[in-house]
Automatic annotation (TrEMBL):
Name of this protein: Cytochrome c oxidase assembly protein
Highest rank taxon of the organism: Bacteria
Gene it is expressed from: cydB
Pfam family, one: Cyt_bd_oxida_II
Lineage: Bacteria, Bacillati, Actinomycetota, Actinomycetes, Micrococcales
Compartment(s): Cell membrane
Main location (coarse class): membrane
């Protein structure tokens, strides 16, 4: 495997990690109005991701940094063409992070309500917009010979991209509610199981429509196989949730997200940014990549530090593996 192809795979794996890990964070945030019947419930929900949400978000920073260093042309075209969407994602992530830190600084109900709203919007908006962005990458965007985006913001809001955004929104929501069922006890766990089952059924329907649409928009044998894997994993995840097997359901939801992301990457390969107006204007792993020296240095750095990061993250999840309950919140208040 040559270095540009290797780094295309590495970038894809970083986005897999980000969507799997921050995906359930987003889902927990979106579940606040559905599972949080009072402030204690909402604190339970927030505490399920409290120790890990900021660690999960580092994956998108690393993915963006790798994209910038390994494929500067891809980075430039994507961030200039999707500027408004990515700016909204950044603003939403900032508002969400601030809300986690400041929500408990005042006991006034209105203060908490406003920060809860920021958490909900700050979780839902990136969930939708990331799907819209990747839907456009798969579909292709109009570019000139210099690989500059020549469309408008309205061109990005096409039916396939909007369907992709709705799919990621629902998948992340279901993923997050399954995580709540996995990490909580008592009544809130039972409510989460029921909600995850109902939401999962809707997600299956919308997800099936998306996978079929992607097969017609752009597909390879590998992407079709991965799409089938994603569909089967999603159905099994919903069934496991209904049967009360939250651990298996969470694992299957992670497989669903990973398979979908990998299906998108394999569908466009060897391109990284297909041109919808003229295939000759497309960016691929070779004309978008950095030089071999840069990629070689990056490969050695990744070989050393990625295992350390994975080990640290695994250790963090192990330390905070216990379930959270209303009793834990009441004890912490005294």
């Amino acid at each position: 495997m040559d270095l540009p192809v290797l780094w295309f795979a590495i970038v894809g794996l970083f986005f897999v990690g980000y969507f799997v890990l921050d995906g359930f964070d987003f889902g927990v945030g979106m579940s606040l109005p559905f599972l949080g019947k009072d402030d204690t419930d909402r604190r339970v929900l927030i505490n399920t991701i409290g120790p890990v949400w900021d660690l999960n978000e580092t994956w998108v920073i690393v993915a963006g940094a790798c994209l910038f260093a390994a494929f500067p042309e891809w980075y430039a075209t994507m961030f200039s063409g999707f500027y408004l969407a990515l700016l909204l994602i950044l603003a939403a992530l900032i508002a969400r992070g601030v809300s986690f830190e400041y929500r408990h600084q005042n006991k006034h109900a209105e203060w908490k309500r406003r920060f809860d709203l920021m958490i909900i919007v700050g979780s839902a908006l990136p969930s939708f917009l990331w799907g819209v962005a990747f839907g456009n990458v798969v579909r292709g965007i109009p570019m000139d010979a210099g690989h500059n985006y020549t469309g408008t913001i309205f061109d990005l809001l096409n039916p396939f991209a909007l369907l992709t955004g709705l799919t990621t929104l629902l998948v992340f929501f279901t993923h997050g509610v399954v995580f709540v069922a996995l990490k909580t006890e008592g009544e809130i766990r039972e409510r989460a199981k029921r909600l995850a089952t109902r939401a999962g059924i809707v997600t299956i329907v919308v997800g099936a429509a998306f996978l079929v649409a992607m097969a017609f928009v752009r597909a390879t044998p590998a992407s079709l196989v991965l799409s089938v894997v994603a569909a089967l994993a999603l159905v099994l995840a919903v069934l496991c949730t209904a049967w009360g097997k939250e651990g298996r359901a969470f694992t299957l939801m992670a497989i669903t997200i990973a398979a979908v992301v990998l299906a998108m990457f394999t569908a466009i390969f060897p391109n990284v940014m297909p041109a919808s107006n003229d295939p000759a204007n497309s960016l691929n792993v070779y004309n978008a990549s950095s030089g071999s020296y840069t990629l070689t240095v990056m490969s050695w750095v990744a070989l050393i530090f990625v295992p350390l990061v994975l080990a640290y993250q695994a250790w963090t999840y192990w330390v905070f593996r216990k379930r959270v309950s209303r009793a834990h919140i009441a004890q912490a208040a005294h």
